[in-house]
Amino acid sequence: MTLSLVTAGESHGPALVAILSGLPAGLVLDREAIDRDLRRRQEGYGRSPRQRIESDEVEVLAGLRHGRTLGTPLALVVRNGDHANWEWGMSPWPPEGEPSGKGTKPVTLPRPGHADLAGAQKYGLADVRDALERASARQTAVAVAAGAVAKALLREIGVEVEGTAVAGTDSAEIDAARADRDTLGGVVEVRARGVPPGLGSYASKDTRLDARLAAALMGIQAVKGVEIGDGFALATLRGSAAHDEIEPDRRRATNRAGGIEGGVSNGEEVVVRAAMKPLPTLMRPLRSVDLATGEPGEALVERSDTSAVEALAVVAEAAVAFELARAAREKFGGDALGDFVAAHRAYLERLP
Ligand SMILES: Cc1cc2nc3c(=O)[nH]c(=O)nc-3n(C[C@H](O)[C@H](O)[C@H](O)COP(=O)(O)O)c2cc1C
Fold first, then answer.
1. What's the whole-number average pLDDT of the chain?
2. How far is the CA of 184 from the centre of ligand 1 (A)?
3. For residue 49, is pLDDT > 90?
4. Which of 12, 65, 178, 196 has most Cβ atoms within 10 angstroms of its Cβ?
């Protein structure tokens, strides 16, 4: 039994969609808890006016009845309020009537640091918008909704996941960058408490929990570095100062490993960090080339955040929660929620 997630949706298209399969039947979902995470993703200092247009809310189309999962695929939707301004430009079918609203002219000035140029080359696109709409981090909204479902499942076995921004949140620095029409990045940390020992496996590299969490975080837009536990700092220490000695009760007084050894959770808090690069759309645009003419030009300027590190903390929390929930489904299985919870309890009882 495993958990899987497929998402679809463009930044200014009608909606973002997620399908989760592999949930047990009988998990109670709280609509307000999911919407609260969607709101948290929209907050944070340095966001663009887009966040005032959107007031994200989850809709459920399948897999839920009277607030309880059915054990069948769960279909989630988050609508794009801004689509009203892009109805012609982002119409899924050939648009009718005269061009109106936004997105009516092709984008030919790719932004450095975005998928714009590489995407246009890869897919043979004349309008860079065909690449940037899906590459945009707007799709993280529905991933946060999926993460909220994963957190509800994890809570049933006593696991709590929380993400916070730990660098790049200084409002004066963000104001200064905005005044210079520039952008900033930062660092986020996600901690998961109550993770039982034994999630993930050293059996192969794709089952290692550290590798899976790194991929989950690196899969988020603008994440360029991931650390597990003390990560890069460990490289400069002696072994005697870098590892977590085992006490008679099998616990540790330190947690430099970030709760994972040999690709397996060891029962300590799971601690991971992700580094976010400065956002690549600048109001003072970087040098680029016009793909239509070959002439030098300035990159597209499109409404954009100055900093999104606090939003990343919420997105990273969702990504870690989803991956831990997936590992927990693999270990404890069960078609009904009670089977899953009972398998977890029996496993803990088996541990000395
Ligand atoms: C929550 C969140 C919000 C973002 N908002 C913006 C933004 O407003 N402007 C921007 O240029 N990039 C933004 N990004 C980053 C880009 O989506 C990302 O840098 C780009 O798609 C290229 O992907 P890469 O950085 O992973 O190579 C955001 C990323 C996240 C996680």
1. 97
2. 11
3. no
4. 12
Q: Class of 106-350 per CATH?
A: alpha beta
Q: In sequence order, which residues have a C-beta less than 8 Å from that of residue 119 and are 6 or more positions away?
A: 125, 128, 130, 131, 132, 135
Q: Which positions ≥6 away from 230 have C-beta within 8 Å?
A: 237, 242, 256, 257, 258
Strand partners, 264: 261
Say yes or no to pLDDT of 256 above 90. Answer: yes
Domain range summary for the chain, segments of one domain joined by +: 106-350
Closest CA to 24 of 52, 49, 3, 51: 3
Give the single-character DSSP code of 252: B
Ligand 1 atom index nearest CA of 41: 1
pLDDT level of residue 336 (50, 70, 90 thresholds): very high
Give the E-state strand segments of 36-155 in sequence order: 58-62, 64-65, 68-70, 74-79
- pTM value surpassing 0.85: yes
Residues in the chain: 352
Tell me the HSE value of 246 on the side-chain side, using a 13 A CA sphere.
Answer: 5
